[in-house]
Amino acid sequence: MRLLEEEPRFNLTLLELLHNDFALTINGLDGDLPTDESGVDVDGIWNMVRRAVRDIPGFEVTRDVVIGTFSFAKYLMWKDLIDRAPQLMQSALVKYLIERGQDNAVLDKSGEVINVEELDDNVNTQDLFLPLPADSSQIAAVVASAKGRDFVLDGPPVPVSRKP
């Protein structure tokens, strides 16, 4: 058995579970681990955990060890979302999706795209920039998007035939 190239770290998922489910924060284990003369201070770390959980019914720290390689890909993605939550909540759509079902969940810029029959009356074609040919339903979606509307476009793209 040998160390990997990366630094050893405490189980960050366990720390997050303790924080979220038991309002327990164990300082000093979420970054570089404490060391002693032989390297990582394993006994010191477990003593920190033991002291932190001693008053939680059903918790105890034992000297059993499980060794393995664990993937934290989903945790890191989740942590990235948590760390950027304030920035993400600036998006009206993300805010609505998170608060959906709550009284304050309102999507201000949602709504139907313009009715295709009303395109000619409401949209000046000189104001449109369409790099590819588009049918009326695609143009309606482009117009709604340009106005900052949030909507779901249902269905496959409609092929537009090119006439010679």
Task: Note down, in words, how this protein is organized.
The longest helix has 12 residues, at 42-53. Strand 1 and strand 2 form a beta hairpin. This protein has 2 domains: 12-83, no CATH class; 107-164, no CATH class. The protein has 164 residues and is an all-alpha fold. 37% of the residues lie in helices and 2% in strands. It is elongated, with a radius of gyration of 27 Å. The chain has helices spanning 12-22, 42-53, 73-83, 85-88, 92-99, 119-122, 136-146, and strands spanning 35-36, 39-40.
Question: What's the quick description here?
Answer:
The chain is an all-alpha fold and 164 residues long. 37% of the residues lie in helices and 2% in strands.
> β content, as a range?
under 5%
Order of strands in the sheet with the most strands? 1-2
Give the biggest sheet. 2 strands, antiparallel
Q: Count the DSSP helices.
A: 7
The portion of residues assigned to helices is 25-40%
Shape: elongated
C-alpha Rg, in Å?
Answer: 27 Å
Quick one: how many beta strands?
A: 2
Strand-pairing-aware structural class: mainly alpha
Distance between the termini: 70 Å
Runs in which pLDDT lies below 50 for 5 or more consecutive residues are: none
Average of the residue pLDDT scores: 81
Order of helices and strands: HEEHHHHHH
Number of domains: 2
